[in-house]
């Protein structure tokens, strides 16, 4: 196997930037994180390829700030596969693309069923990659040569793939759709942090009482602090199931906690004092969390027929028409319109139903203009159809 060198010093980084500047065309870029292994979502390896320059593998923790690459690609297109997954960790080290081409999104718009990079490369360019290291712990140092070769292959063919997909998009009349999608991904705002992130604990629904929730909250906060300090994924210290089990059990002492068979994980016994302290705080705290959290969001869809039958009828009729349109366009229905905005507009439509009002409502929910132009007329027909069906059903009941 050919050894692949990792650039890990500032001098090597500057030299690589000069080499990339001498290349031409788009810059293909990918990042490897250590999701499931580390607390942070930082990039532990960044791969860049440019024609007539070659492929470069960078070690961000060793290099630090990498904004020189942004200056290098100031007016240049960056090519990524599933850009939404990598943009945040790239920005963290100063790499801020101004225009992108997303090969995964392009594949979706073209109706390619399986959109992983390896699958798309095989279908479009007949290039077959081994994907055996996709779930590796990229915080490992030194990185094995086989991992580095795998990482380099992720960008080696990305510009060629971009060109082939762009030709297909133009041929299908979808290049305008794609540009809007790329721009939306590039400028999508970050989701605001949750006020109570501990409520995302898997299995939390099994805890019915406020005191149990207080214990779960205390254990989660203690685990999160330790995970952040050590940069370890929280679930690798103690899993969610252990927190829920401890919160739901009757525990009166440190010994009781140690004997709890469901309380497992690599840090369950070495950090037992920490967990007992957290559990004790949860048992004694006076400010208990609510068992249910008030929400301004629309109800779960399964409750619509009972809570808002008109909305349920609108959504059912809309989905039928939108599904037919997506099939005609040869793309997944969720790429024609996301489920969330569609539900919002069906639940609370404009007072006056028209293509113009529905277009405005969709765009206010983040739907792109190309999507709204196709979906709004379908919603108008669906809403009018569902109203007619409801009126007809009411007339039948009245007689």
Automatic annotation (TrEMBL):
GO terms under biological process: nucleobase-containing compound metabolic process
Coiled-coil region(s): none
Pfam families for the chain: DNA_pol_A_exo1 (PF01612), DNA_pol_A_exoN (PF18305), HRDC (PF00570)
Positions of the HRDC domain: 209-289
Molecular function, one GO term: 3'-5' exonuclease activity
PANTHER family: RIBONUCLEASE D
Protein name, UniProt field: Unannotated protein
Source organism phylogeny: unclassified sequences, metagenomes, ecological metagenomes
